[in-house]
Amino acid sequence: MAGRFVAAVALCASLAWAKPHSAPRQTTDTTSVCAGNTADDRSVWCDYSIDTNYYEEVPNTGVTREYWFELQNGTAAPDGIERNVLTVNGSIPGPTIIADWGDEVIVHVTNSLSANGSSVHFHGIRQNFTNPSDGVTSITQCPTAPGDTVTYKWRATQYGSSWYHSHFAYQAYEGVFGGIIINGPATANYDYDLGNLFLLDWSHQTIDQLSIDSSKNGPPTMDNGLINGTNIYVDTDNNNETVGARWEATFEAGSSYRLRLVNSAVDSMFDFSIDNHTLEVISIDFVPIVPYTTDVISIGMGQRYDVIVTADQSAIASDFWMRAYPDSFCSDNANPDDIKGIIHYGSSTATPTTTGYTTGTSDCADQPAESLVPYLSMSPATSFDVTNDLDVSLSIVDDWIRWAIGETSFQVYWDNPTALQVFNNVTAFNETEVVIELPTANEWTYLLIENSNAVTHPIHLHGHDFYILGADNSAYTSADTATLNYSNPPRRDVAMLPPNGWLAIAFQADNPGIWLMHCHIAWHTDQGFALQWLERRSEIEALYDETSLRDSCASWDAWDAISGETQEGDDDDGI
Fold it and tell me: Quick one: signal sequence residues (predicted)?
């Protein structure tokens, strides 16, 4: 994989970077989308409400939201230092997918990259009975070849905030990502919706260029961090000139603002805060929760938190720092104290002088489980019979770092996705494909993940919200079984596996398909920290258009044969 990206971007044109916005903007007018949903009562959504069981009942809107994306090579300077990037419709982040709860969504993706295949995954979207649109190379599809277009179709069965990103090599972290907003009810009221707020680490080299070093020597130090795609940087190679720009927003005193936080980082867990302000947390991933307040929120890679901030600090100052501090326990950044945006009150444009809360001192753990109470109360079956006990391991194979969840480091291949193997009646999968079959509809799977390494891992499961029964940063013993929580435990699609500890989760086989589960640290994903669930195999073929699947793979094979593109097994595990 290393080197391919460099060759591709030599042909790049210049990209005009999106400017940081300086005033509140409402991403979509929720007051006109659905009757009854107003700033005074966000719990109402037409004939539905925050009390509706969204797993069982979804509005039939009859509306289709259609988007056209083009993936392109480019150059950009998000913090004032120009580098090669990949873009969606010429920008980073790409366009936001906006839909209402119950809408059908169609996304056409054209791969105009000069020398790479690609795909687009809709992170956290459950893809109920739409597994072909999960967008994972080597699992649900072959890579989309340059010049080809693929169409993804899915329904917004839940509401909240997320992001889409490429699931091919490191493209998500080179710029192939953007926001997802599904409008619906909320557990607390607010005046304005400011949309997605992306928190990401940033390197002045491409992630592809860093990948060899990460696979040989461990995670490299990132140069900077961005808030919604922008930040400043003190350029030591140019007389310490400050370049780039802060992300800024203007608050009206007394008003309240919804921020949809998304951690889209390669390998950084951020502590997010706004000086002097309190965050009211109303949603985790795609799960509305009973609101709670905090000064600082720790957000892991791939996680989302929706928060409400009230502009009630005008007596203190007119300008406040917004901070995204990479937690030093699990993040390495050369500029940790200066990943900041600015909140202005009224017409002020001054630089803040406010002081931040204490951050960056945790062990990169999730928010306390007792705070993450789903508003819609649901509970798994109460007998913890460990279906799978999986150990996380780290090894060095021929000088390459390899991770594994279970006994085998993950390796799949672009030209032979699991979906194609299902159609080809393969029953004996390669050991490195780490396929676990779940044949019985609605059966519960209980999973104990044990981690003997001093590293925190964000565990992401496609196609499901899972229940977090428990977690701790010590070795699991039989005594821990009695401490597991079955009474409306937290539900989400990304949870942090503690260092030297364990994570117990449960999910139900209620969604036929081939679902990836992996660590959302980019280096670890690429180094084999993944497995796949083959759920209700007998129902999978009916979900796919076999002709389209085979044709797209044939197109990839034809392009691959003339391009010289190779999949290097040591530093590219296929996803």
Answer: 1-18
Predicted confidence at residue 36, as pLDDT, reads: 87
pLDDT of residue 540: 98
514 and 534 Cβ atoms separated by less than 8 Å:
yes
Partners of residue 394 on adjacent β-strands: 403
| Cβ-Cβ contacts under 8 Å for 14 (sequence gap 6 or more) | 74, 75
Q: Quick one: tokens of 454?
A: 């001093």
Question: Which domains does the chain carry?
Answer: 388-544 (2.60.40.420)
Q: Are 120 and 78 in contact (CB under 8 A)?
A: no
Average pLDDT over residues 71-95: 98
Both tokens of residue 250?
Answer: 């203007």
pTM: 0.93
DSSP 91: B
> Can you list the alpha helix ranges (DSSP code H) found in 69-187?
171-174
pLDDT at position 11 is 23
**DSSP state letters, 62-83:** --EEEEEEEEEEEEE-TTS--E
Task: Provide Rg for the chain, Cα atoms.
Answer: 22
Q: Which of 30-34, 114-118, 427-431 has the lowest mean pLDDT?
A: 30-34
Segment 161-184 mean pLDDT: 98
Are the C-beta atoms of residues 528 and 411 closer than 8 Å to each other?
yes
**Whether the Cβ atoms of residue 498 and residue 468 lie closer than 8 Å to each other:** no
CA 304 from chain centre, in angstroms, equals 7
Give exposure, 167-190, as e/b (b: 16+ Cβ within 10 Å): bbbbbbbbbbbbbbbbbbbbbbbb
